[in-house]
Amino acid sequence: MSKQHVIFVEPAPDSLKAFEKHFADHTDQWQMVFCATAEDALEQLIYNDGAVIVANRDLGELSGAQFIEKVGQFERDNSRQGGHFVIFTGPDDEEGFASALNQGANDFISPPFEWDQLAQRIQVGFISLKTTAQLRKTINQLGQLTTLDPLTEVYNRNHGAELLQQELSRAGRGLLELAIILFEVDRFTEIISTNGAAAADAVLKHVAALIRRSCRNYDAVIHWDDSRILVICPHTSPVNVGIIAHRLFRKAIATPIEIEPKKTLKITVSMGTTAIPAGERCTSEGLLTQANTALTKAEQQGGNCVVHAATAEPEETLS
Asked: In angstroms, rounded to a whole number, what is the distance separating the alpha carbons of residues 63 and 103?
């Protein structure tokens, strides 16, 4: 079982030694660090994600609010998910508790300490961090439910439409070129009638996973409808989208798909591609119509090929 992390920050040497002395019997469950300055404490955050920080509200070089801000900035800059729970210590005046919370602390306690009580406050901090982590995980899972297609585990159509509109806006402002690839499994209804719906699902899952693995990390892969996958390719010219489409095309038809134990199926695919230059304004409906027209042309020529909207001629066909 990994130890929980506690960072004590106290400019006064005697007070820092008191923390070390009174919590010596917690070394079996806590990994403790004792810091005399805020700077030392901030450096320790690199090694102590999800720590409880017990800090004097008056750190000399930094106010409590400034210290809290630097802790938060560190978490944002380093994409830390664990978070930190901060307990400020300071004089027991009328404004002490309210001031500490206003500065961003999670708790406040005044010396002279009842050490058992402080230990309990630290333990509450760990419980709070664990609860927050569980809540964050749940929120992330809910977010995935609203953006991912449950069958293929790529983006669903609603989220894909939002992403396409965002990329069109960037392209329209002259920031990036934009291309899309509309990809369909040939004779998909025949796969269903011959092998069953489960086999068709296995084909779609395989194709979607293959495309996702083969695309660049900034491309977006969407299950657009029944047997169609849409790939949004930012910063991609007509020439480059052809290169990408050909690579995906060859990979998609190269590998037999296991649709049930010891039974595989080879598929063919058709693709329609289109692209717009940076600065050109186009609606999502317009761009999708271009790609769909190219895809329809590919299907009319027997499938198993890539057609670009600008030429309407098959650019690659494999029999």
From this structure: 9
